[in-house]
Amino acid sequence: MMNISKTKRNFICWHTLFAVISAALGAVILHFALPGHYFGGYPFIPVYFYFFGLASIYMFDACRRHAPQRLLLLYLAMKMIKMILSLILVLIYCLAVREEARAFLLTFISFYLIYLIFETWFFFSFEMNQKRKKKNKKKHETVA
User: Fold this and answer.
1) Which tens digits make up the pLDDT trace of 53-65?
2) In this structure, is residue 25 part of a structural domain?
3) Which of 38, 103, 112, 142 fits as disulfide partner to 30, beta carbons 3.0 to 4.6 Å?
4) Where in the sequence is the domain holding 52, given as residue range(s)?
5) CB under 8 Å, gap of 24 or more: what pairs does 100-105 form?
6) Are 64 and 71 in contact (CB under 8 A)?
7) Is 81 contained in some domain?
8) At residue 50, does pLDDT exceed 80?
9) 15, part of any domain
């Protein structure tokens, strides 16, 4: 069995489920709710966000184990890297495929915001659980 933390496993499972659902929902919306707006580069968007999320999970896990005091700094750095890389990729795609630029840009921004909300929710709930565990641990140490 692989040595994988419960938090890491949970986040990978939730992240994968979220990626599949959001990708499928996005495709359905582009095909049926906005007919004619589906574009060839669509699959790239959910794949990009999925793999960036996986890379983030592994980096956060390594940071949590080796330098937990730098977790917030890593979180902020990953958000900046994601924003800069996203801007570069959007610019390249929009210049290369001008006829799909508007649909790509709107779809990419939608995914960016949806993933921002999802990741913020997950890490907020993770931090709350960590604080709860520390509080319970201190409470049990005081009683003992």
Assistant:
1) 999 988 988 888 8
2) no
3) 38
4) 37-143
5) 100/39, 100/40, 100/41, 103/30, 103/37, 103/38, 103/39, 104/39, 104/41, 104/42, 104/45
6) yes
7) yes
8) yes
9) no
